[in-house]
Amino acid sequence: MPEENHEASTPAPHRTTTVEQGRFCAARCTCGWRGPARRARSLARTDAENHAAAHPGT
């Protein structure tokens, strides 16, 4: 009978970045999440910070 690994896998942390798209900036995460396009970079950064805060430790 094959052995099964019952250890819980540790999810990768959410790593966010901002990406320029013409006149707009958007936040993106390694989990696949994408924030809305914003004209203000500061708002895109806030979107990224809020996303990361909503998923602590994951």
Please provide a written account of the structure.
The chain is an alpha+beta fold and 58 residues long. The protein has one helix and two strands; from the N terminus they run E-E-H. It has a two-stranded antiparallel ribbon.
Summarize this entry quickly.
The chain is α+β, with helices and mostly antiparallel strands.
Could you tell me how far the N terminus lies from the C terminus, measured between alpha carbons in angstroms?
33 Å
> What are the segments in which pLDDT stays under 50 over at least 5 consecutive residues?
none
In spatial order, strands of the major sheet run 1-2
Instruction: Report the principal-axis shape.
Output: elongated
- Radius of gyration equals 16 Å
Strand content: 15-25%
Provide the succession of SSEs. EEH
Report the count of strand segments.
2
Helix content: 10-25%
The helix tally amounts to: 1
Strand count, sense and barrel status of the largest sheet are: 2 strands, antiparallel
**Class per helix and strand makeup:** alpha+beta
Give short descriptive properties of this protein:
two-stranded antiparallel ribbon; 1 helix; elongated; 58 residues; alpha+beta
